[in-house]
Amino acid sequence: MAPSAQAHQRSHSMLLLQKLLNLRDSASPLTLIIDSLEQTARPVLNEFITRAKFARSKVIFISLATVKKPPSADILIKARGKPLRDLSIEITSHLLQPPPPAPPQKYLLLLDTLHPLLPLPHLPTFLQSILPSPLISLVAVYHADVPVPAPTSQEYAPAPLTFLSSLATTTIRVSSLAHEVAARQAQRRSLPVPEHGLREGREGGGSVVLDVEMRRRSGRAVGERFVMTMTTGEGGKAAAQFVMLGDHPLFVEDVARAGGAGGEGKGEEEGAETTFSLGLTEKQRRDREGVVLPYFDAQTDMGREDDFDDEEDEI
């Protein structure tokens, strides 16, 4: 990929992430965050809340495991033990729009865990009932390492995570940056991937890796990996900074070491001595560039069925 194309792809991916976190234009009505005890989803939830408050959106925290109301949340709804119908009525009672002269109110619903609601066949109906308007966004957490009881009546039902991932318009899988870097280094050396978190005897911490997959209006999935690092901003307030995983200094340094004097990267490959040449002559390179590939028009012309969303027009 050409440098200009790479820069455009980076800008496009960062804009999509910012649009998701800022809840712009109903970017994702249902966002599923997949975490574990090794790396909690709390930093990502706090970032959603911070940006929602900055945009003057109303934050409703639906608690199935949290005891105290988060300081930045406007409303706390204790959902444990309540039937889904009663819970839906209570949530929608807070989703009131002001009279016409006032600007429409946006809402952010946060569900701290989905596990007490699983496995329930009426969960899709419940989720649909609390998302009656594009002004409402729901962010729900799924704990990947917490077992879910097997359904008794639906023998061939899909796994809960598979089912929820198909319903969500965006999935965010969180992990520790230190764990990701260690795993990358082990794979590059053909070593076993190290164990982290509970198996290692400690929890993850520091910077968080976000493995984001967004579904566009056409249904096409767009995936990218980011690093979220918490820093201290003005007035001592915590602020989040985002960078693509491949551009993070730890990964850049790892690539540089792989291509340096260690003999594992590109530098050694270019200087290796062989009994035959794998390169192309200048004439062969010109001949190859002059070849017209089959179906070349289909590669350059965009059909009506291709995805071309409004946010791409903005970019």
Automatic annotation (TrEMBL):
It is found in: Cytoplasm; Nucleus. It comes from the Eukaryota. Pathway: tRNA modification; 5-methoxycarbonylmethyl-2-thiouridine-tRNA biosynthesis. This is Elongator complex protein 5. Residues 304-315 have a biased composition (Acidic residues). Its main location: cytoplasm. Gene3D superfamilies: P-loop containing nucleotide triphosphate hydrolases. Keywords: Cytoplasm, Nucleus, tRNA processing. One of its GO terms (molecular function) is tRNA binding. PANTHER family: ELONGATOR COMPLEX PROTEIN 5. It comes from Schizothecium vesticola. The lineage of its organism: Eukaryota, Fungi, Dikarya, Ascomycota, Pezizomycotina. Belongs to the ELP5 family. Residues 258-315 are annotated as: Disordered. GO terms for biological process: tRNA wobble uridine modification. One of its GO terms (cellular component) is nucleus.
